[in-house]
Amino acid sequence: MNDHHNNVPLQLECTLYFEKNPYAYETIEGLALRLGREPSDLSPIVQHLVSLDIIEALGEGDSAIYHYNQPKIASEVDLSWEQV
Amino acid sequence: MKNLVGTGVNGLDTTLYGGVPKGNTIIVEGNPGTGKTILGMQFLYFGAVQYNEPGLYITFEEFPDQIYQDMYSFGWDIRKLEQENKLRVITLTPQVLMEQIKNPDGLFQRLIEEIGCQRIVIDSISLFHFYYNSKEEQRKTIYALRNALRKYSLTSFLIKEYTEMDQEQVSFVNYLVDGVVQLKLDHHFENYRKRTLEVTKMRGSNIQEGEHLFKITEQGIYLLPALSMVEDETITSLDVVPTGIHKLDRLLGGGIYDGSSFIIDTNSKSNYRFLLASILANRMKAGENVVVLLSSLNTIDDLNGTLKLFDVDLEQFVEDEKAIFIEHYNRPVPEKFKNATINVVGLDDDKYKQLLTEKVGPSIKNGIEKGGKWFVYYDLNTIVSQRGSAFLKRYFAEEVANMSALGISILSLCNFKELGQETSSFIERTSNGVIRTWVDGIYQYMQITKTPNGHNSEPFVVENINEKPFIRLV
């Protein structure tokens, strides 16, 4: 159940959270609180998103902080929220 | 004095005489819904847009995308500022923040350096209570936070929610910080609510004390400094002569404008001698000619003596034909002042007006034609006691209108209580400014209750001092 391959909706939820809040800096515990999920469910998903370069990890272990790895193209596109 | 930085709320800057001292750590506290987040974001938004000071908004609970949407309703495009590296809305937990603050080359330092951050808002420090159990730990943490903010010279707003405990005692946090701003939402009349802001502490800056009303408008917070009234648009002159009393001049926008009519409303116990003399002396030093209507308590000798304390030589003014006195009483007049004194004892109203028109009118006209200015001082209590309040009402409105048209400034002394409500209201309406002074118990007070620029004052205590102008407003 914890395998990220079986949990695409949660993967999407995490990706959307970081994309909508590009300056969120979260530990697994913090992210679990924001999304109302279990840290144990989130951990493999977050590791998978790190491996895909969607989010970046600062530090290691329980105290690692994750944040959105903004696509380079973002600076050339107007992403102001009202036009999204 | 530290540099002041604009808060983005003009009215708040006015109450702080320019803004908050740069680098200060300020608590913004209030109950839910009082406008703390808006004030915090307005401080950052205008910091970035108007003052080129990039800022960080750190939120522990709210999602940034919600803040982007909320602030867009005020026309503030936060995401655009993020793309321009002028603002960041960061979300993390208090623990992560503190770990990263303590970590050399940690996330906090990186974020500060990345945008050249100069302002920061932390929403809210009340959350520290949940992450740090003991009071000692909380105090240490807040202390470390404050020191870090100072280390980076950040001007900081720390948002704090009121707790029941805060309403009973002052929180330790308020002692640690440089400033405290309180926001309130109170009942107003029967069915309304009013929002108020009060600055209760601000190191390195003066404060206009009191609760100031504010509204949350389509452009954010709009604050009206207390005691602001509608500006009197009929005063168009830019020439102003100081009263010589520092605080009074600051409140009046420099002093008394040419062509304006001011009232000193005094009760029987209060001493107005130095206030009156300071105003008169400053007008005379500015080169103005004067007309003085003497009262029963004020002889030419008294006036001469008081003006000498202000380095004004009244005899010289008389010699230069720059002073005229109107005398309602049979009293001896010093030889040197005789030619300048118009005696109106026993004259009926028509003859009184006729005499003044014949004797004072040409002098004023001549003076004005030569480019001179005139200042007229009336004791209205004397006019009422000698000629009645009906005459005063008829005569005063006419005089003010005529003199104002000629650019002549008027100062009148009266006692509103003695004049009665109807006459007082009339006199007040006719005048551009009212300075009240009264004795209440063991102190004398002074308050500006009407000014042409609309800035009224709180009541000040009048303190006697040993040097000019011999009084100070405290």
Give a concise summary.
The complex is a heterodimer of chains A (84) and B (474). Chain A is built from three helices and two strands, in the order H-H-H-E-E.
List keywords for this structure.
heterodimer; A: 84 residues; mainly alpha; Arc Repressor Mutant, subunit A; 3 helices; 2 strands; B: 474 residues; alpha/beta; Rossmann fold; 2 domains; ten-stranded mixed β-sheet; nine-stranded mixed β-sheet; 23 strands; 38% helix; elongated; KaiC-like_dom (chain B)
Description:
- The complex is a heterodimer of chains A (84) and B (474).
- Chain A has 84 residues and is mainly alpha-helical.
- Helices cover 40% and strands 10% of the residues of chain A.
- Chain A has a single domain (4-83), classed as Orthogonal Bundle (Arc Repressor Mutant, subunit A), CATH 1.10.10.10.
- Chain A has three helices and two strands.
- In chain A, strands 1-2 form a two-stranded antiparallel sheet.
- Chain A is globular and about 30 Å long.
- The N and C termini of chain A lie far apart (33 Å).
- The model of chain A has no long low-confidence stretch (mean pLDDT 83).
- With 474 residues, chain B is α/β, with parallel strands linked by helices.
- Chain B folds into two domains: 4-224, Rossmann fold, CATH 3.40.50; 240-473, Rossmann fold (3-Layer(aba) Sandwich), CATH 3.40.50.
- Helices cover 38% and strands 26% of the residues of chain B.
- Chain B is built from 19 helices and 23 strands.
- The chains are: A mainly alpha (84), B alpha/beta (474).
- The interface between A and B is medium-sized, with 21 and 21 residues.
Give the topology.
The complex is a heterodimer of chains A (84) and B (474).
Chain A: H1 8-20, H2 28-35, H3 39-51, E1 55-58, E2 65-68
Antiparallel strand pairs in A: 1-2
Chain B: E1 4-5, H1 10-15, E2 20-21, E3 25-30, H2 36-49, E4 55-59, H3 64-72, H4 78-83, E5 87-91, H5 94-102, H6 107-115, E6 119-123, H7 128-131, H8 135-151, E7 155-161, H9 164-168, H10 172-176, E8 179-188, E9 192-202, E10 212-217, E11 220-224, E12 240-241, H11 246-251, E13 256-257, E14 261-266, H12 273-285, E15 289-293, H13 300-309, H14 314-319, E16 323-327, E17 341-343, H15 349-369, E18 374-379, H16 380-387, H17 389-405, E19 409-414, H18 416-419, H19 421-430, E20 433-440, E21 443-450, E22 460-464, E23 471-473
Parallel strand pairs in B: 3-7, 3-8, 4-5, 4-6, 6-7, 14-19, 14-20, 15-16, 15-18, 16-17, 18-19
Antiparallel strand pairs in B: 1-2, 8-9, 9-10, 10-11, 12-13, 20-21, 21-22, 22-23
